Amino acid sequence: MKNNIQQFCFPATAAEAARLMARFKDKGLIVAGGTRLTRTLSPKVEAVIDITDLPLKRISADARGLRIGALCTIAELEASPLLKRWARGVIAKSAGFGSNALARAMGTVGGNVVRAHPFNNLPPVFLALDAAAVCLDGAREKVLPFADLLKPEVMHLFGRKLFLTEVRVPASTKNLACAAERLSTTKTDWESYVNVVVAVDKRAGVCRRAALAMGAILPRVARLGRAEAALEGKPCSEETARLAEREAVAELSELTGGAEGKAYAREVAGVLVRRCLLEAFNG
Does 1 score more than 60 pLDDT? Predict the structure, then answer.
């Protein structure tokens, strides 16, 4: 593949990487796993900033919650004993949705999160768990709610003005009843019809609060606020799960403009919402 790369940079710290990114702007490219580099390399790129060896690979927990380094591979999330215990293992399960073992072994959390592809598997689970993104802008650290990271005007800044170092998941999510499902033509197909993650705070058989995050069917990952509101205060029952299914399909119909080409995906999304809720309700 023809390119205009003139130099490779190997920063020793995240701060140095952020400064290089700010210096080169659109002429620089940050590379970690590099799973999509050959398909997305712009001819404008003159410098490659290789961050592979930066110390951003830990998965840990403290009193405030989970801390997941941006350079952790998808496979490391899938295999992590800590993540398999957190929120019923929903992060590890979502990581396992990745298309194939090689891609999961190479791809990183940062690459999966900051590329605005609706089929990526980690954004829905982080959005459902009210995660935050820790970034450097070349001068200082910023902490963004994950929902803000997904905004197009913010997503555009990653790799240009913002450098992701860590994803934080609040401690309050540790014991949530969670579930995730994904449907694609084949198990290893990167493009899916829909990716659903639910997180439920249930007490004494009642749903106090719920998060429903949806990927693939929409241009970018989103929460279904109307369906979430319909669940609050309802008993954790099959009837409630079917109510949420109907609300989710209706909300997605509005969000997709009733597009005929999305009809099957909307129907599937509703079914997966119901299945995930029943799994969350029943444990």
Answer: no
Rounded average pLDDT over 114-133: 92
CA distances from 263 to 192, 253, 257 (A): 14, 8, 10
Structure tokens given for 156? 């555009």
**pLDDT given at position 114:** 87
245-271 in b/e burial notation, b at 16+ Cβ within 10 A?
A: bebbbbbbeebbeeeeebeebbebbbb
On whether the CB atoms of residues 50 and 9 are closer than 8 A, the answer is yes
Residue 65: per-residue pLDDT? 96
In 3D space, the residue among 68, 214, 190 whose CA is nearest the CA of residue 128 turns out to be 214
Q: Which two tokens stand for residue 206?
A: 């009642």
**Phi then psi for 187, rounded to 5 degrees?**
-60, -30
Give Cα separations from 24 to 4, 42, 158, 216 (angstroms).
Answer: 14, 14, 13, 32
Round to the nearest angstrom and report the end-to-end CA distance of the chain: 50
Q: Kindly state the tokens that stand for 49.
A: 């900033």
Closest C-alpha to 168, from 205, 142, 201: 142
Asked if the model's pLDDT at residue 89 lies above 90, the reply is yes
170: Cβ–Cβ under 8 A, 6 or more apart, which residues? Answer: 64, 65, 129, 130, 131, 132
SS3 assignment, position 94: helix
pLDDT value of residue 76: 96
pLDDT of residue 37: 59
